[in-house]
Amino acid sequence: MRALVFVFLICLINPLSLESQVFEFKHIPGARYRILSTVDQAVFVNGILSHRAEILNRIAVEVTDVTDGKGQHRAIFQTSERLIYHIFHGRLPENTSFQISREYESVFERDRLGFLTIDPQYFMPVVRNVPVFPGRELKVGDKWHAQAHEVHDFRDTFGIQQPYRIPFNAFYEYLGERQWKGVSYPAFSVNYNIESRPDPVAGYVYPIRISGTFNQLVFWDHSIGQAIAYEEEFRLLFEMSDRQRIEFRGTANAEFIESEYMDRDRIIADIIDEIQRLEIPDVVVRQVEEGISLSLEDIRFFPDSDRMLPGEEAKLERIAGILLRYPDRDIVISGHAAQAGTREYLMELSLNRAGAVADFLLSRNVRTRDRIVIRGYGADRPIADNNTEEGMRRNRRVEITILEN
After folding, report:
1. How far apart are CA 82 and CA 254, in angstroms?
2. For labelling alongside 362, which of 42, 317, 329, 403 has CA 20 to 30 A away?
């Protein structure tokens, strides 16, 4: 949950000297980029470790317009989670895949100093008006502060339907040069505390007090004029109306990645040619909103299982070779099922089958674990008639999407 705290960092740094700089946001029409962040988070209930998870956040951003130095942004936030430890199950297997848990869309405007204008309907970004700059020359050791706020999605947890706003003051200090991945960058710290006493929510257990401490270190790149990364330590405590105390502790890091243009028509043609050359049956390649999808419409598993039938791995071996031709693109694997069981059961089965395909691709080093995520749709997205055996066969599919951004 924490890695969404610092997003959309495109800034222009006008170096006056190695120790004195002016920081301002610069927005370039048509610019597209993404922020990839990971969180290591432990959750304690009444002081006892409940579970620990890795959270992977992908934020895809496009600057759609610039007027008077203000950039209009459109962004997609995708949050995925991988459980590492659970109080009832102990430490979980290392090969657990990241599972998509939530996706949000947001539109907002940011000015040259970093102040955000956004409709209150949007749940993302979580942290707003961080960072902001004072509009003056900064020397090493200079400090400034500004008002900001967090916005949380409490719909499922507490029944609060609107984005929940928590104000705070952020405190900054320009630190000079710091090392990130062996390279020196100008850096500054961001520190803030939050404190909130929410109103009661009828019919729900709700937080009566929310408090937290957050400490960030932000790195900037001279050569490209953009924020390149941040690191964070955090602690967030919820004191609940039923007297429980739920505490989140952890660390987060993120990096800025410029998106490369994806020539979809050329890539689709190349993939189709390779599928035909390798004689891989029942694979449909098409363009989708996220990128390019390879739909495996006859990947076979044992009944009611995520264990593939003999021979299916040979098919995936050839698919892995195709995916290795596009190493810079992340992958989403989606499982689907025919209408034969309860919705809950089919959701779990389709997710587990997507996970089985992901694990196979990981075993072939097609991607690293943080660059493959899975999701299950159950029988919610049929492509054929479930009243026929042929239709059910096609609906029991796994789709591998090569992402553009």
Report:
1. 17
2. 42
